[in-house]
Every structure is written in structure tokens, then in C-alpha cells.
What we know:
The structure holds 2 protein chains of 2 kinds.
Chain A: H1 18-37, H2 61-66, H3 79-83, E1 93-98, E2 105-107, H4 108-112, E3 118-125, E4 130-140, H5 141-148, E5 156-161, E6 181-185, H6 186-190, E7 195-200, E8 215-217, E9 230-236, H7 243-247, E10 271-274, E11 281-282, H8 290-293
Parallel strand pairs in A: 1-9, 4-10
Antiparallel strand pairs in A: 1-2, 3-4, 4-7, 5-6, 5-9, 7-8, 10-11
Chain B: H1 2-28, H2 36-65, H3 74-96, H4 101-110, H5 112-129, H6 133-139, H7 141-148, H8 150-165, H9 171-196
Amino acid sequence: MWIKKGIPEIESSEITPESTYVNRRRFIEIAAAMSIAAPSTTGWAQTKRGPYDTDEKQTPYKDVTTYNNFYEFGIDKDAAARNAKNLRTQPWTISIEGFVKKPQAYGLDELIKGMTIEDRVYRMRCVEGWSMVIPWQGFQLSALIKRLEPTSQGKYVEFQTLYAPDQLPEQRRPLLVWPYVEGLRLDEAMNPLAILAVGLYGKQPLPNQNGAPIRLVTPWKYGFKGIKSIAKIRFVDKQPMTAWMRQAPDEYGFYANVNPAVDHPRWSQATERRLGEFLKRKTLPFNGYADQVASMYAGMDLRKNF
Amino acid sequence: MMLKRRVAKISVFLACLMPVVWLVTAALTDDLSANPIRDITEETGTWALRFLLITLCVTPLRRLTSWNGAIKYRRMLGLFAFFYGFLHFLTYVWLDQFFSLLDIVQDVYKRPFITAGFSSFVVMIPLAITSTKEWIARLGGKQWQLLHRLTYVGAIAAVVHYLWLVKADTRRPLAYGFLLSLLLGFRVLKFVRSQFHFPGRSAPLPHAGHV
Lengths: 306, 211
């Protein structure tokens, strides 16, 4: 075997000055941003379309990352983008609790090691009447649940956001009961549509304001079910009390399935404004995912179980 | 002197226009959020409420400081409250509902927060119409004054509208409600005092026609 001795000689003229490669990186960013600003129907650079992906026009990256609700950082839509810088996402521990084979705390990397990260282009319908199309990156929640092996008493999955008022400043104020809690019935959690997202627009990690380092995405439900910055997952035998149910039980139910036929008590859910569009569009049952999820609710009164 | 007053009036007028100038500029330079229609709705609504409260400050300010300077701008301030309220209403009817009459009627009927907001706007229409000197003369000071107490109803309805529309973040509507309760409390106190003729109180100020 040939081993080169010493430092290989490189002509100084061959060394790329820093300004050039920084500029090149900047150029790539700008080019990426431009392609994001004007997405074609194929989106950012998706190589193949998965079985659950929508090919609708994707919401620009800038809008996805500057317009959302993350009340732990403030009530304004741009509050999270402005205030989430101080969220420390490394190291990140997720505590696994309840009716599960090995309840213990895991480092995030350890917990999700070997999971198949896929792109999932999903519609997102906010309970407030606006919607987006977001290319997430993540893995199926079902894969994690299988790995954790819940026992037969584990009938629901409860999620909790990190509780750390020094990083999530609005947790000092009683806006909601903190930490934020969400939950799914086990069969909902096992549905292939349900993912834990760790990236966005083909990139990891997730921006802090979108729920870094890991958040839930359940596209057939209203956006508030998609709990962000998950620090605890509990397998429980009773339906969890979620943050919004606690806040206003007549307005926000456990299921929170997108349903144009059941109005929010204070506003209609029949239509929505897709961000970037002028006229409102009709909201679809289960946000257009009825084929994948409707059977889970067969026989249930969706007016009562809203 | 005349010129100075004119300049002052024009300055106040231009200052009152600033929110809509800012909004139009932001819209044209793509400086609004991903949901510009919602931004326009929120901004115009908030400014309508702010101008209502500013208008309601004029009389207490005059009574507490015995400075009469602000009274000259009260009509203008009130009309700006109506102006922003009208823009808010127009945004809802045009940009939000796109003139879908059925949806609008359903909204006003079914959604308490829209009922409240709509009431606030409707109540302000006769006030805007009768804001001229001619109308004061036609109605007579007393009747005109009575009619214009509808401002209180309009302001209360506007705060209720705001309070009922938010999800959990009641801090802002409650702050406006607190300010409004101070401003209305001032008037209640004045009314109670006038009923009992507390000894030692000075006679009512001249120009009692202004409330």
C-alpha cells in the first residue's frame, strides 16, 4: 500500500478562498429559497412521491416557518419564529412512561435510531380556518410504538411538550395549563399517516419554531393535535386530558378530526383559506384523508366525539 | 393663529391615517404575514377599537385637566373610529367572505362574536351620519347628545367582539376592556355626582353639550 508522506502539495492558487465558498453556499441557499418561493407542482426536490403525499402546491418555506401557533413562545403567529431561538434541542431526552415494556428516559438519537426517515407532503388544517401544504420529514409513529412494545393496558398514547419556562417563556403565564398535552387512541397512533416529524422541506433538523427536535403530525386532525417539542410519551389506559380540552371542553374535543359538518362553537369549519389563495376552499372530511382514517371512527357519532 | 390651528388639525388627521398607510405599504411590499387577509382584518379592527377608546378619552381628559385642546378633534377621532370600523367590516365582507350574503347572514346570526362586532358597526353608522354641525342643529343638542351616547354601546360591543373571538389569549381584549371600564366608570361617577349634587362640587362646566 502506498502511503503518501507529508502534506500533499496544493498550489495556493487552487485553494478556494473562503469568500467564494461562503458565497457559493449562500448562492445555494438563495437558489433553494427561490425554488421554494415558487414551488412547482413537484415541490422542492422530492425525488419520488409517497403513497400518502399530496401533489398540491406547497406552502413556501418562509410561510411554514414564520406563521404558526406555538403558544409557549407567544400568541402571535410570528412569535415562535421570533422567540424560539433559545430552545435547546441538544441534548434532548424523551421520557417513555406508563404501560410499556421498558419505561425509561431515552436520548432522542438512541430512541429513533434506525427509523426510516421519509418525506411526507401533508395538508395541515388549522382549527382557526386556514391551511397549508407542508413537506415534512419524519418516521411513522407506529414504528416507534412497535419498538417500545406497549402492554395490553396501553390503550392511548399521551404526549407532553417540554416544560422549561426558561426556554419556553409563556409557560410562566397561565394561558393554558402547561406543559401542553395531546393524545391519540392507540389505533390512531398506529395509523400509517401519523408521523413524528424531525425535519421540513427536505432538511433536518426541524426549525425550533416548528417544534424541534421532534413533533407529532396527524394530517387528518386539526393542527393543534400536532404537539411540538415532545419530551414525554406515556402509554395510558384512559383517554388523556389534552391542553385544549382542559381550556375549553365545549370547543376542542379529544378527536379533533377535521370535519366541515361540525362547526366550532364560534366559527364555521365548512371552509378554509389555504395560505396564498384568495378565495376560501371547501374543507374536506378528515382533511381529505377519509380513505385512510374514516374506518377507525365507524359507528361513532362524530358530532359528539368532535 | 388660524394657520396654527389648521396645521395642527391637518397633522392630527395625517397621524390618524398612519395605520392605514402602514397597512397599505406593508401589503404592497409583501411585508404582511403568510395570511395577509387576517392581518388586515386584525389591524383595522384593532385600530377601530383604539380610536373608539381615544375618542372616549377626550371628555375625561378635559374634565380632569381642564384643558380644552382635545375637544376640537373629537369628531375627527370618532369618524376615524368609524373609518377603521368600516374598513374592518369591508375586509370581512369582501376579502374574507367575498360577498357571500348567505354566509354573512349565517355568521351574524349564529356566531355571537360576529353578532357583537356587527352590532358595534351598525350602532356607529347613525353616529357617523349625524356628526355634522347641521345634524347637531337639526336634532338639538340634548337629543344629539343622547343619540351619541350610543358610542358607549358601540365600544362595549367592540370589546365583547374581541373577547369572544380569541381562543385562550384573553389578555389583550381584557386590557382594552379595562381601559373602557375606566372611561365609562368616569362617566358613571359623573352621573351619580350630578344626581346627588354633592356639596362643594363646582357648577357644571360650560358647554355641557359635550359628553
